[in-house]
Amino acid sequence: xxxxxxxxxxxxxxxxxxxxxxxxxxxxxxxxxxxxxxxxxxxxxxxxxxxxxxxxxxxxxxxxxxxxxxxxxxxxxxxxxxxxxxxxxxxxxxxxxxxxxxxxxxxxxxxxxxxxxxxxxxxxxxxxxxxxxxxxxxxxxxxxxxxxxxxxxxxxxxxxxxxxxxxxxxxxxxxxxxxxxxxxxxxxxxxxxxxxxxxxxxxxxxxxxxxxxxxxxxxxxxxxxxxxxxxxxxxxxxxxxxxxxxxxxxxxxxxxxxxxxxxxxxxxxxxxxxxxxxxxxxxxxxxxxxxxxxxxxxxxxxxxxxxxxxxxxxxxxxxxxxxxxxxxxxxxxxxxxxxxxxxxxxxxxxxxxxxxxxxxxxxxxxxxxxxxxxxxxxxxxxxxxxxxxxxxxxxxxxxxxxxxxxxxxxxxxxxxxxxxxxxxxxxxxxxxxxxxxxxxxxxxxxxxxxxxxxxxxxxxxxxxxxxxxxxxxxxxxxxxxxxxxxxxxxxxxxxxxxxxxxxxxxxxxxxxxxxxx
Length: 517
Known about the structure:
By secondary structure, the chain is an alpha+beta fold. It contains 16 helices and 18 strands.
């Protein structure tokens, strides 16, 4: 409920946050206005290099303090002394400026309060349960996820308890697992970063948006930390490992009685010689060749625990040649086996995507991400998005490989498959959405077989391909993601065939969170 007292608190914080926006814009203007294209690239490189980003942060801090009087005149803010007296505020503005430089030129701004949120004011804004989204990568890219989750919480609340969504960088955690800072949504639906006068309790947490380097190790460390403090987790590390390990995922799915549709697969263990690896690959390829009655096979080779399309490539293997003649796949396998096990899977999915504005003949690979969450009694597949490849020359549908994220609604309106050598438009029916929903819910449950409910991976993003077979379109389960990215781009699966997408991530998850109070 929005009271007059709450409005006064929000108005005060809103005015404070304008200072941070002005300072971020000022730093951008100072750094960018005289840069050549080469200098701009160098700035982005420095911001992305941990050994240089601290130097860049200090440079931004020095600029702000050196130009303080100029800023007072230009911004016309009489209370600037108070903002600059908060050293952690200035440091956060500089850190965000580094993030923006790293993602320049398409980097969002972040509203940061320079006043500490007093204990009583925090209690007014954060009534109910606190759901901590623990992250470690760029804050400016994560703020939309906090807002999207809070919107879902409000839509799912009805007469239930309020759940406050708080984005918490792992550096903001206290030794007892509380949040000293956080990204919150106030009662006027504005996202802001605040420093708490008194660290706030976290009643349940989810670990997301970690730096790609050492992502799994960081997840393990954080999960162990929260387990030792008895704080429930949406994605505990041990159950998340089942999804991180693609081979284990496929093994769990293949053992289900529901006959989930997924590609054939094989594992090549790290440490095997390239000769042994090629022997496994050749045997696997012959099995595919025999079942498909083809002399050439298409297979994907990827790291078994990789994410976001990294080091994923497709190869066409001619079985009339000796394996030692497969030069490209040999080199790719060698690179993977230095750092990870290699997963080999047959190519599946024959449905492609084409925008109405795309040139004739330009078709893109497409995968569908569906989010499934535990509601306390069952898994519910509610939302998702699609990823497309940059073009047909890159057989990996991933934004990290130059592709795009699009809504399910846009995806389902622009799908094609080949019939007798020509592309035909695929008309998705409501019954197919039900088929996707059922398959994903079964797959999410399958990942948790044998676990206690409190140890479940309670939210997972499952990637599927679409395949037309004899006039019937089927979902092909590809992999699972225990720290799903792109959540703020998710739309309702139920409304995916309507004219306008409905933004949402999950209502079921908040029903579960309320049930654990």
